[in-house]
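Whether sequence alone determines local backbone shape is best considered at the level of individual chains. The sequence in question and its structure tokens are set out directly beneath this paragraph.

===
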Amino acid sequence: MAVRIGYAAGAFDLFHVGHLNILRHAKENCDFLIAGVVSDEMLRLTKHVEPVIPTVERVEIVRSISYVDDVHIEDVPDKLETWRQLHFTHFFKGDDWRGTEKGARLEREFAAVGVEVVYFPYTVHTSSSALRHALEAMAASHPRDEALTEGLIANG
């Protein structure tokens, strides 16, 4: 029986239960799971997002998840190029991509090289974007008190 090598990629910034869910589901559907952590540079280029947690720290967090067998830093936008580097047999994605043009293109490209795209339920109640917006709202409604900040620095 062939070994099922899975690949689940993401920013994994502001790590949350949705990230854990996709890694758990992915590991349940393969023998060896590679988690792709999108680099800071690729996040800026492809999503126009400034990561909160730097790549090296996100890699360390993801590497420590028991479902993950290996970690790959994604530093190219082309998933087929990533496949050429890793030769995974299954690509895992949240089902928010199912039925979209991006998802259909991904399915076509991977079908051509024998990779199966498998979708898992997207955790709708949380996302890094939602967490990022919540942090921004909290920061806006609770500006730092200069005296308190100075006191913490002096006592720190």
